[in-house]
Amino acid sequence: MARVLIVGAGLTGSLCAALLRRETARPLHLTVWDKAGDSGGRMITASSPHNSQCTVDLGAQYITCTSHHAKKHQSFYDELLAHGVLKPLTSPIEGMVMKDGECNFVAPQGVSSIIKHYLKESGADICFRQCVTQINLRNDKWEVSKETGSPEQFDIVVLTMPVPQILQLQGDITNSSGTKLLMPFLTLFFPISGYILWLQISYHQFAP
Ligand SMILES: Cc1cc2nc3c(=O)[nH]c(=O)nc-3n(C[C@H](O)[C@H](O)[C@H](O)COP(=O)(O)OP(=O)(O)OC[C@H]3O[C@@H](n4cnc5c(N)ncnc54)[C@H](O)[C@@H]3O)c2cc1C
């Protein structure tokens, strides 16, 4: 079974994990590592230490669906609405500029519930406080080192953190000849794109 590591438990990493699970016929062992103590990345929801019902979204606070994305991603919105993860935003927001064909959604359990939904669906092993520092090729596997603990080996590594943080990584990853594919990845909701750097040893292990 191919071992796949996704680095980053933000929107890009969580959705990537869910789509890999959904779209891949072959059995995969999926693992997600994040250096933070919880999932969400720039869509994190913080809770009051005194009352867990009292939460605040520290990054993105509502989701704007443009007419372009509505067509392309309708099934994703339908799924999140059906699970109660998203609800239409009906209250006015001061200063909000609405364009024709756009609609807005909020996440009643906090915006990080979108990420938690996809991580749950992926069935991946999620490990927090795992800060990746180095990626090297060892015996046809990617050996991934972190700040604490022993390095681990994977067949495929998907990096979903912001590009400046990817560029800080050490090891063979800095040698572009080891990189099979670098592709821009449009995150589900936002016109601002995240980037996925995808490292894989043998595509046939992964292809359906
Ligand atoms: C205040 C704020 C408001 C925003 N509002 C909007 C908005 O209205 N509309 C819009 O389009 N966008 C908005 N955004 C941007 C949106 O939140 C991001 O585009 C989106 O969340 C990015 O998701 P991501 O998964 O690509 O990256 P991230 O959320 O950054 O996830 C990357 C993850 O990688 C982890 N990581 C990084 N380095 C390592 C490492 N070495 N090892 C392990 N893990 C690592 C990080 O901890 C993080 O969890 C906003 C952002 C902020 C901060």
UniProtKB/TrEMBL annotation:
Name of the gene encoding the protein in the UniProt record: RNLS
PANTHER family: RENALASE
Annotated Gene3D superfamilies: FAD/NAD(P)-binding domain
Residues annotated as domain Amine oxidase: 105-166
Name of the protein in question: Renalase, FAD dependent amine oxidase
Top-level lineage group: Eukaryota
Any one cellular-component term (Gene Ontology): extracellular region
GO molecular function, a single term: oxidoreductase activity, acting on NAD(P)H
Keyword Transport: no
InterPro entries linked to this entry: Amino_oxidase (IPR002937), FAD/NAD-bd_sf (IPR036188), RNLS (IPR040174)
Membrane-spanning residues: 181-199
Pfam families, sorted: Amino_oxidase, NAD_binding_8
Taxonomic placement: Eukaryota, Metazoa, Chordata, Craniata, Vertebrata
Cleavable signal peptide: 1-17
Keyword Cell cycle: no
Alphabetical UniProt keywords: FAD, Flavoprotein, Membrane, Signal, Transmembrane, Transmembrane helix
